[in-house]
Amino acid sequence: MSSLLSTPTTLYDAHGRPLEYLRLAVTDRCNLRCFYCMPEEGIKYLPRHEVLSYEEMLRLTSIMTRLGVRKVRLTGGEPFVRRDLVPFISRLAELPGLRDINMTTNGVLTAPHVPTLAALGVRAINLSLDTLDRQRFFDITRRDELPAVLQTLEAVLKTGIQLKINAVVMDGRNIQDLVPLAELTRELPIEVRFIEEMPFNGGSHVATAESLPWNHRRIRQHLEAHLGPLLPAPAPAGATATEYSVAGHVGRIGIIAAYSRTFCGTCNRLRLTAEGSIKTCLYDQGGLDLRALLRQGESDETIAQALAQAFYHRAANGFEAERQRPTHQLNFESMATIGG
């Protein structure tokens, strides 16, 4: 067996897509209870010993950077509910070959850390924010934390870290918020991204294609009816969002067809869950248990070979990945356990 780690390598899957981007879930825990992510009582969290240690995460990320990964996004759950996250980011930033460290956060605990994140070289922060209305925020998240989230928004803008707002579009819940959120791009250098609702909700409700009235086409039509034409704008390779500019706006609009899955053909990412499982697609069931390999004492080369096999054999798209699962019903999974 030839060595993967002896020289710099870029992995490709069977469909010609490179591995360049790792979404790393540092925890499955969250301090909000968004109804589209989990039931009100929460989910059964992993016991502490089943969660990867920071040392294990660093080792796995180091292996992946030698296999072509250049960008890491820290996700959860909510990353900042895990203790000592900032020192971990500091060590992560020292890995050779890693160019971008980004983060997705709900913003509740983030604001005090933003200056340090900027100093460590965090390039971009995605802030989950489905509404600017305090009551609707409470109705969606079951927590009264909108002021803290807006404080994080202001803190990020002051540092110059690239800011994107992620808003899940939910029929009957926040449709009246789409235009106010989009209007933030008129004066602010941010991207507001509207995301089709997905079926990963921990069993709180069932989503199907038939029950998704707000798909990416209708979202665009709704925004154009209020803002004028959305003009297609260049997007980075592997981007999930279709990006648009609006005349007179400083920032951009993005629309993510997360349930329609229009972007699978350029997907360049893996997901590493908090328990050490690799997901080669958001819609697959996972399978490669890296935690077991680590704790069995396997070498970096053995782990790299296992990753290469898993990545090579991943599904062509999210629909194929969903068909390959034992059940097509995904609604008992939570985005908190998947890693965002």
TrEMBL record:
Sites where the protein binds S-adenosyl-L-methionine: 36, 77, 128, 198
Binding positions for [4Fe-4S] cluster 2 per the UniProt entry:
264, 267, 281
Quote the protein name from its UniProt record: GTP 3',8-cyclase
The record's section on Pfam families has: Mob_synth_C, Radical_SAM
> Gene name?
moaA
Say if the entry is tagged with keyword Transit peptide: no
Q: What is its EC number?
A: 4.1.99.22
Query: Which of this chain's residues are annotated to bind [4Fe-4S] cluster 1?
Result: 30, 34, 37
